[in-house]
Amino acid sequence: MPKSRIRKKADFTPPPAKQATNIKLTNRSWVAPMMLAFFLIGLAWIVVFYVTDGDLPVDALGNWNIVVGFGFIAGGFGVSTQWK
């Protein structure tokens, strides 16, 4: 019986390399300090309110001082969405 011819396979050629695209990131170095500042201000506002039995930070606001403190904390979470 005759031997069959062996077909030669083409050598593998890798696909052409993709050009690297420059990703321009904006300077967001202000985000982390601002976020931490909002968190700490909000926490300090609430702690001062409780420690002074509602006399400080703003006596006229009364229990709304808690909302102001949580507003600062929420602002910190809002700023954290800008972090990349």
| Helix/strand order | HH
Instruction: Give the overall form.
Output: rod-shaped
Detail the poorly predicted runs: none
Tell me the total number of β-strands: 0
Q: Strand percentage, roughly? A: under 5%
Distance linking N and C termini: 70 Å
Rg value: 31 Å
Could you explain the architecture of this structure?
This protein has 84 residues and is an all-alpha fold. It contains 2 helices and no strands. It has helices at residues 31-51, 64-80. Helix 1 (31-51) runs antiparallel to helix 2 (64-80). The longest helix has 21 residues, at 31-51. It is rod-shaped. The chain starts with 30 loop residues before the first helix and ends with a helix. 6% of the residues are buried. The model has no long low-confidence stretch (mean pLDDT 87).
Task: Break the fold down into its secondary structure elements and pairings.
Elements: H1 31-51, H2 64-80
Report a brief summary of the structure.
The protein is mainly α. 45% of the residues lie in helices and 0% in strands.
Characteristic key phrases:
single chain; 84 residues; mainly alpha; 2 helices; 45% helix
